[in-house]
Write a structure and sequence with these properties.
- By secondary structure, the protein is α/β, with parallel strands linked by helices.
- Helices cover about 50% and strands about 15% of the residues.
- It has 15 helices and 10 strands.
- The two termini are about 40 Å apart.
C-alpha cells in the first residue's frame, strides 16, 4: 500500500517530505531515502525536528513545513507510531502520511495511509529486530522490486543503514547481519562522501571498519548534531556531493561532540552527587534523578551512565523554567521500562520508547507521585 501511494506521487510529479527523528537511526534512514528518491527524480525534501523546541516524534511544525512546500505525502523515519493527533492534523491539511517506525505502539494507532512497523500489533513480519533505518531500507527495496529497479540501487545505501543499525544497538543478526555485511563493504569503498569524512575525522582512514568502531567513534559525531544543535546538519553531511563541504561539516561535528562530552560529564557528576545524598537509595529498585535546566540533548547518555554505574533502571529528568520535565529512561535486562511507564501514565504528559529505553514528559507537580508509583512498580 505504501509503494502504491509513492508510485501515485511519482506519477503526479508531486512533492514528498521525509520527516526523520534527530538521532543516528532517524538521520541515516532519512538520508538513504532522500538519496534514493532524488535518484528517482522525485521532488523530495527532509525535515528533522529541533530536539529542544519540538521534542521527540512528529511535530506540528514539521507538518506545517510540509504544507508550506506543497507536499502531498509525508514519510516518517524512526518515529510516528504514537503520532495519532499529528497524523490527524496532517490529514486535515491534505497531507497523506506513511509511517516507518520500530517503536512500540500505544493503545491507538495513527490513521495513516500505511504503517510499516514489524512490532505493531498483529504484524506477522518474521524479523522484529529492524531499526528505523532498516525499515526505511526495506521500503526502498520494495519500491525497487515494484518498479523493476535493480536491487543494487538499494544496496548502495547499506553503509548508511549499517550506521543506523550500529548506533541503535539492535541485534546484528538475520537481516541486520546481511545489511551490515554489504554496508561495511560500502564503507570501505568510501562511496558516501559524508561518511568518508567522518571516518577520516575519527582516525580510521585505511583501517578496517567494524560495527563496534561505528558505535563508539562515528555514531557519536552524528548524534552530536542533534544533541547540541541542528540535527539536519547530519542529513546534509550524509547526502552532500561536495567533499569540501563534507570535510568542514565533519570537523564541526567533531568539535561539537567534544563539547557534548564536557556537558555530559558535568551532569553525570551532579547526578551522582544527588544519588549519593539520597539516604533511601540502597532500598530503591530504580534510580530516578531530577534537575533544572539540564541539557535535554545529553540526558539519554547520562541515563545510560547512571544505569551502568548502579545496575538499576535509571530515569533522568530535566525540568525547564515552565515546570515541564523531559526525561530519558534506560533499563536493565528483565525489566520492561516502557510497560512500567504505561502503568503510571496518569502522571505523565506523554511517553514512548522500547522495553530497554524510553522517554516521557511530566509536570513538576506530578513528580513526587510518579516517583513513588514507579518505585513501587
Amino acid at each position: 500500500k505504501a509503494v502504491e501511494r509513492i508510485n501515485t506521487l511519482i506519477g503526479n510529479k508531486g512533492t514528498l517530505l521525509l520527516f526523520g527523528d534527530y538521532d543516528v537511526d532517524g538521520t541515516t534512514g532519512t538520508s538513504a531515502m532522500y538519496l534514493f528518491f532524488k535518484h528517482l527524480g522525485v521532488d523530495v525534501h527532509f525535515y528533522i525536528p529541533d530536539r529542544e523546541l519540538e521534542g521527540y516524534g512528529v511535530s506540528l511544525q514539521g507538518i506545517d513545513f510540509a504544507c508550506g512546500i506543497g507536499a502531498e505525502l509525508m514519510i516518517t523515519c524512526d518515529c510516528g507510531i504514537t503520532a495519532v493527533a499529528q497524523t490527524k492534523y496532517a490529514n486535515s491539511k491534505g497531507v497523506d502520511v506513511i509511517i516507518t517506525d520500530h517503536h512500540k505502539q500505544g493503545k491507538q494507532i495513527p490513521d495513516a495511509w500505511a504503517i510499516l512497523n514489524p512490532i505493531q500489533n498483529g504484524c506477522n513480519y518474521p524479523f522484529k529486530g529492524l531499526c528505523g533505518a532498516g525499515i526505511a531500507f526495506k521500503l526502498i527495496c520494495a519500491i525497487c522490486l515494484n518498479r523493476n529497479i535493480s536491487i543494487d540501487k538499494a544496496l548502495k545505501y547499506t553503509d548508511l543503514i549499517t550506521l543506523g543499525i550500529a548506533a541503535d544497538l539492535v541485534p546484528v543478526l538475520d537481516e541486520n547481519r546481511l545489511i551490515a555485511h554489504h554496508g561495511i563493504k560500502n564503507f570501505e569503498k568510501g562511496q558516501n562522501i559524508g561518511l568518508t569524512a567522518l571516518i577520516d575525522i575519527a582516525g580510521f582512514k585505511g583501517k578496517k571498519i567494524t560495527v563496534g568502531r561505528l558505535v563508539f567513534w562515528v555514531a557519536p559525531k552524528i548524534n552530536a548534531a542533534g544533541r547540541l544543535g541542528d540535527a539536519s546538519r547530519a542529513v546534509k553531511l550524509m547526502t552532500t556531493s561536495n567533499p569540501v563541504k563534507a570535510k568542514l561539516t565533519a570537523e564541526e561535528l567533531e568539535q561539537e561532540n567534544k563539547r557534548r562530552q564536557y556537558v555530559t560529564s558535568d551532569i553525570v557528576e551532579k547526578c551522582i552527587f544527588k544519588i549519593q545524598a539520597n539516604i533511601n537509595r540502597n532500598n530503591e529498585k530504580a534510580t530516578i534523578v531530577m534537575g533544572d535546566d539540564w541539557h535535554h540533548g545529553v540526558i539519554g547518555i547520562v541515563a545510560s551512565r547512571v544505569k551502568e554505574d548502579y545496575n538499576k533502571p535509571a530515569i533522568i529528568i530535566s525540568f525547564d523554567s515552565d515546570g515541564i520535565g523531559r526525561s530519558s529512561c534506560r533499563s536493565i535486562p528483565g525489566f520492561d521500562i516502557h510497560e512500567a511507564l504505561g502503568k503510571c501514565s496518569q502522571y505523565l504528559e506523554g511517553f514512548g520508547g522500547h522495553p530497554m529505553a524510553a522517554g516521557f514528559s511530566i509536570k513538576k507537580e506530578n513528580y513526587k507521585d510518579f516517583y513513588k508509583t514507579f518505585q513501587a512498580i
